[in-house]
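User: Sequence for HSF5 protein below. Tokens please.
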Amino acid sequence: PVIPRPCTFPMKLWLLVNSPCVHSVRWDARGEGLFIDQGLFEQELLGVGLSAAGEEELFKTKNFGSIVRQLNLYGFHKLTVSPASSTVGSRPRPATGGDTSYADGPLHHFWNPHFRYGRPDLLVKIKRLTKANKEKLDAGLEVTSRLPDDLQY
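Assistant: Structure tokens for HSF5 protein:
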């Protein structure tokens, strides 16, 4: 069976943060933001240092800075990571394979008002900040987007 590829960056991010197979991206304790372990993300999702033989690339880059740029373009804001907040996540950490302390690289905390745990319906409100969209927003107009067909309500 052909699995439909997520078409937008926020949709890819939503699928990653909710996937039990992905360990580099997780919800924060309140389900209102996400933590990204940069080193693990680079290994797990960007294929840095790995030979991705036959695997389809999820992102068209191997540069973590490009991922941060996409987050910024879609209205995500970087929050300061405090030691207390980084130890709490809604997903249990893997208990096998040695160190599970997320010490592979810097831990980043991002927030967007429309990116919430259990609320895929809000993804439609996340817009890419293109010049045209910014002009519409500055003029008080609505910028529309739509969810993929399999997430329509």
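Strands lie at 25-27, 33-37, 77-79, 107-111.
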